[in-house]
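Figure 3 (text version): structure tokens given as input.
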């Protein structure tokens, strides 16, 4: 009798443990990862934290504007020192702020371009409770471009220069808005589903190295759960978040694709695929030495700057040629 009760207790204890383990790995873990992607408010330390364009010797003015869905955004407008060659809108990455783009903005100013830097929604000083890793942030980029052209009466062409999430938002914005004349896409991904799949396997490898007990869980169904919950929290359909489709809509406007050779998060194969989708004769692809995600401008500065100079010079020459022939 006592032995029977003991076996029954062991049986139910085992069932409870299995339920807890399954619930943890297939319930809590996907929900936790979705939260990291969409609602966390972590800020990666940046060497430019606390700095402004003034730190780089640039005059600027603080600006505020709203995205079309009402989210308030804050940033800086940095006018060119002389008649501008155009205007560059700088867009930072996930869990970053506008200060990430200060070195790029100083470089662009030196080339004679107006600059607009701002915090994307749910980042820095801007409003918003959710990050969508670029999907809704496209509205922020469109609003920044509109603010530059209308309130600041900024010169064309308008180039959007984004890193990682900022590159994704820039590509989506350019796909929607004809006001964007060209894009510099640094360390973008292909689509939302691929982003989650790839980062799950990176997370699993990290977890296995850090916690010996973390099992080698297969991608299914966790990847699908994280994809669903992340998109649900941010309010979009994963199938709508596709940067290859965005590039197809941007065509034939020019895009400069940038990647870092050793970037595990956004490998160069992504940039090569997007470049293959682009049709502009002015498109460029540059793969820089280094290993850190989104750090190409800092790790291979001269090579990066040369690529940007060449891209902008070709864009300017093309515009001058079109004006000379009366082409639109």
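Below: residues designed for each position.
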């Amino acid at each position: 009798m006592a032995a029977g009760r003991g076996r029954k207790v062991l049986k139910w204890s085992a069932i409870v443990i299995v339920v807890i383990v399954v619930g943890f790995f297939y319930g809590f873990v996907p929900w936790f990862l979705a939260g990291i992607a969409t609602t966390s408010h972590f800020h990666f330390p940046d060497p430019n934290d606390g700095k402004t364009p003034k730190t780089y010797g640039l005059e600027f003015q603080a600006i505020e504007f709203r995205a079309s869905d009402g989210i308030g955004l804050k940033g800086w407008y940095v006018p060119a020192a002389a008649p501008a060659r155009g205007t560059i809108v700088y867009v930072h990455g996930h869990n970053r702020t506008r200060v990430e783009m200060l070195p790029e903005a100083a470089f662009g100013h030196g080339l004679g371009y107006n600059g607009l830097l701002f915090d994307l929604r749910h980042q820095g000083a801007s409003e918003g409770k959710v990050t969508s890793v670029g999907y809704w942030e496209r509205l922020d980029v469109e609003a920044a471009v509109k603010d530059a052209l209308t309130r600041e009466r900024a010169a064309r062409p308008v180039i959007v220069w984004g890193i990682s999430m900022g590159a994704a938002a820039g590509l989506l914005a350019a796909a929607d808005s004809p006001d964007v004349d060209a894009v510099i896409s640094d360390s973008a991904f292909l689509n939302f589903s691929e982003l989650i799949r790839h980062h799950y396997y990176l997370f699993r490898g990290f977890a296995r190295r850090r916690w010996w007990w973390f099992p080698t869980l297969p991608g299914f169904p966790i990847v699908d759960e994280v994809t669903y919950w992340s998109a649900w929290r941010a309010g979009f359909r994963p199938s709508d978040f596709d940067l290859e489709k965005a590039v197809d809509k941007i065509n034939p406007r020019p895009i400069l694709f940038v990647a870092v050779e050793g970037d595990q998060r956004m490998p160069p194969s992504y940039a090569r695929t997007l470049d293959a989708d682009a049709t502009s004769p002015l498109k460029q692809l540059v793969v820089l030495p280094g290993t850190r995600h989104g750090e190409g401008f800092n790790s291979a500065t001269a090579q990066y700057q040369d690529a940007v100079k060449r891209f902008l010079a070709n864009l300017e020459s093309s515009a001058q040629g079109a004006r000379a022939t009366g082409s639109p």
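The chain has a mean pLDDT of 90.
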